[in-house]
């Protein structure tokens, strides 16, 4: 392993994350607003958004396994990015619930599967080229902030179609960024297996995934209905964009100082921080839409998302062998942003029409449940995360 990260690698990985999360900014902050503007009800919005997470249960394992079996992670990442680009182009041409739902199920699944495969390539770069993951990943967060703010300003008072136009440009940029990534491949010993289910068979990783995935899935109501909830409360598009960006500003600090946080808190501490922050965040969001309070609690995104994500990447880097890296990332992502998240999104859609903001309390209950799971399995996770990762089995 190189002693210092190469500046070119840092730039290219940072560019990939920046392009990827510019699209995420549009999807999270404005895509539900676009769906609502197209005439879909809250229940239909929840079903359309949830469909992507359910299909991801198939798309995620398929592409993660292909990435590990062939060793060509960049290739499959490019296939996903190009496919997603053409799906977004197709959204310009269709109307009606089923055409939009089916297209977004495919496109959303392809988009969110890009993230764990990108992370698996980054983990390889951490091991092979001493990439500073936090420094590269924070460019995704910075991109999210800038695009959220500019997009909110750009579409305010304009045609609904502007949102889809912005998403199209961002997905095109993501395709170009992937093509410039280095084509890193894992080292596998003869006879070693690369399988999605091989990663699942590691017991401490399986337990860790359930806990971390439950924390991440508690964001379902936020991603699906926060923008609509705030818009109904009288907040403007620019104020909503500012709230999304503000949460990620603090997230940037977590990634920038990730190594120091790991020294002080380690994996158990990071998960505990996420659980405590999530419990407070979802409780307050269910109580008020006052802008001052919303600004205060959006900073807790650093706990609920960033701390959990840093714990996941660290656990995989320490415990999972190279040839299972994409499969491990994919397994976590299928649980966090597929099975559990899809269920939470569906529940949010069913509840939001009746409960409105109190739907966030259900997400808070998920976070509390994660806390109990962590207490029961703390020793297993601590011992598992201390085990050295293997280059090959």
TrEMBL record:
It is a multi-pass membrane protein. Keywords: Cell inner membrane, Cell membrane, Membrane, Transmembrane, Transmembrane helix, Transport. It comes from the Bacteria. The chain crosses the membrane at residues 12-33, 45-63, 75-95, 101-126, 138-156, 162-184, 205-226, 238-258, 265-285, 291-316, 328-347, 359-376. This is PPP family 3-phenylpropionic acid transporter. InterPro entries: HcaT-like, MFS_assoc_dom, MFS_trans_sf. GO terms for molecular function: lactose binding; lactose:proton symporter activity. Residues 20-358 form the Major facilitator superfamily associated domain. PANTHER family: 3-PHENYLPROPIONIC ACID TRANSPORTER-RELATED, BLL5896 PROTEIN. Its main location: membrane. The lineage of its organism: Bacteria, Pseudomonadati, Pseudomonadota, Alphaproteobacteria, Rhodospirillales. Signal peptide: none annotated. It is found in: Cell inner membrane. The keyword Transport applies. One of its GO terms (cellular component) is plasma membrane. NCBIfam families: mfs.
């Amino acid at each position: 392993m190189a002693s210092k990260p190469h500046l070119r690698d840092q730039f290219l990985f940072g560019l990939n994350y920046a392009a990827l999360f510019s699209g995420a900014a549009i999807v999270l902050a404005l895509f539900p607003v676009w769906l609502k503007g197209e005439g879909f009800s809250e229940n239909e919005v929840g079903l359309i958004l949830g469909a992507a997470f359910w299909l991801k249960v198939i798309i995620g394992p398929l592409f993660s396994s292909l990435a590990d079996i062939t060793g060509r992670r960049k290739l499959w990442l490019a296939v996903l990015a190009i496919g997603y680009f053409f799906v977004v182009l197709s959204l310009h041409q269709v109307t009606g619930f089923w055409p939009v739902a089916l297209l977004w199920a495919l496109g959303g699944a392809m988009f969110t599967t890009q993230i764990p495969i990108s992370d698996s390539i980054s983990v390889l770069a951490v091991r092979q080229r001493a990439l500073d993951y936090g420094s590269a990943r924070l460019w995704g967060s910075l991109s999210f902030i800038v695009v959220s703010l500019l997009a909110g300003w750009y579409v305010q008072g304009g045609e609904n179609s502007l949102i889809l136009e912005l998403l199209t440009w961002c997905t095109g940029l993501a395709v170009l960024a992937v093509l410039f990534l280095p084509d890193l491949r894992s080292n596998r010993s003869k006879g070693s297996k690369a399988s999605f289910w091989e990663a699942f068979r590691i017991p401490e990783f399986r337990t860790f995934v359930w806990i971390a995935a439950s924390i991440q899935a508690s964001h379902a109501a936020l991603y699906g209905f926060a923008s609509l909830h705030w818009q109904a409360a009288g907040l403007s598009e620019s104020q909503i964009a500012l709230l999304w960006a503000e949460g990620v500003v603090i997230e940037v600090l977590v990634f920038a100082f990730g190594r120091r946080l790991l020294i002080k808190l380690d994996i158990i501490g990071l998960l505990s921080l996420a659980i405590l922050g999530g419990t407070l965040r979802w409780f307050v969001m269910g109580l008020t839409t006052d802008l001052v309070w919303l600004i205060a609690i959006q900073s807790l995104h650093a706990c609920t998302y960033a701390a959990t994500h840093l714990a996941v990447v660290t656990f995989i880097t320490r415990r999972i062998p190279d040839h299972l890296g994409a499969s491990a990332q994919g397994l976590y992502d299928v649980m966090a942003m597929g099975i559990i998240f899809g269920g939470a999104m569906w529940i949010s859609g069913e509840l939001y029409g009746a409960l409105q903001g109190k739907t966030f309390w259900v997400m808070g209950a998920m976070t509390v449940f994660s806390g109990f799971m962590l207490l029961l399995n703390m020793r297993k996770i601590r011992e598992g995360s201390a085990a050295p990762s293997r280059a090959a089995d």
